[in-house]
Structure formats: C-alpha cells, structure tokens
Design goal:
alpha+beta; two-stranded antiparallel sheet; Phosphatidylinositol Phosphate Kinase II Beta; about 40% helix; three-stranded antiparallel sheet
C-alpha cells in the first residue's frame, strides 16, 4: 500500500506544477508617431530581409537600374494603432542600393537597426518642395521624402553615380516611397 500512496503523491505533485511556456514575439512592431514613419520602418525591414535571400550579383545589369519592388499590404487588425490598415511600399533599384551600401562599407544589419530600432526623429528643416527630413535615432542617416519628379531625376543620375568609384562621398540616396 505504501507504494500505491507514493505513486498517488507523485502524480498529485506533477499536476500541481505547471510548466511555463514563453512565446517570443514573432513579428517586429514598428511604432512611430507618424504612420508614414511606421510604414518606412516596416518597408526597410521587409526590403533588407528580402534582399538577404537574393544572391549578390557579380555585376549589375542595365535593368537593375530600372527595377523596383512593390508590395501592397492589407493590415486589417495587426498593429492598427501605429500603421495604416492599407498601404503600399515601393523600393527603387534594390540591388543597386544594396551594392552601394556594400561599396561604402555599410552593413545591412547595422543599416536595418539604425532605421528600425526606434522611430526616425523629425527634423524641423523643410525642403523647397515641401519635402520632410528625418534622421535615424542614432543620427547616422538622413531620410528625405521626395516627389515623383525627384524619383525620375534620381533614375537619370543613378547609373552615373554608381559608375564613379571612390570619388563620391559616401552618401547614399535611399529611395523608399
């Protein structure tokens, strides 16, 4: 009988202690006071993560200077306090800008952390065309909103800018809309 009571006691002790199961957050939340900045942070994160799965080309082709990636997000319930329920994110010339970051020694993870760890800071300065300026929380990068005319102009000069090897200052125009 003693063995039966010890078995019952061990079963009872097993039911009293519950294992705690912690679940790590799977999706990174992008919190900014301005929905545009939340979308920018989401887009930079998405772009860098997508590019990490693409093999680095030996040489950029002419089509890489015209390429863009565009994603439409229907965000009905997730993080609706900080992000719009529907938005589009468009990145111009992703392989070209990855190549420029690489040439100037900018690590993709450092770049990602600078732009997504905390919301970019608003600058009081404004461009002539009404463009808004922001800086990354660590003050390493400046973000400028641009018009569609500015995008067209950037496409016109990007190939020449890329061809100049080391004479350029390590300034990279990142185009995210």
């Amino acid at each position: 009988m003693a063995s039966a009571s010890s078995i019952a006691a061990s079963i009872a002790s097993k039911t009293k202690t519950k294992k705690k199961h912690f679940v790590a957050q799977k999706v990174k939340l992008f919190r900014a006071s301005d929905p545009l900045l939340s979308v920018l942070m989401w887009g930079v994160n998405h772009s860098i993560n997508e590019l990490s799965h693409v093999q680095i080309p030996i040489m950029l082709m002419p089509d890489d200077f015209k390429a863009y990636s565009k994603i439409k997000v229907d965000n009905h319930l997730f993080n609706k306090e900080n992000m719009p329920s529907h938005f589009k994110f468009k990145e111009y010339c992703p392989l070209v800008f990855r190549n420029l970051r690489e040439r100037f020694g900018i690590d993709d993870q450092d770049f990602l952390n600078s732009l997504t760890r905390s919301a970019p800071l608003n600058s009081e300065a404004q461009g002539r065309s009404g463009a808004r300026f922001h800086t990354s929380y660590d003050k390493r990068y400046v973000i400028k909103t641009i018009s569609s005319e500015d995008v067209a102009e950037m496409h016109n000069i990007l190939k020449k800018y890329h061809q100049v090897k080391s004479a350029c200052l390590p300034v990279i125009y990142m185009q995210f809309c």
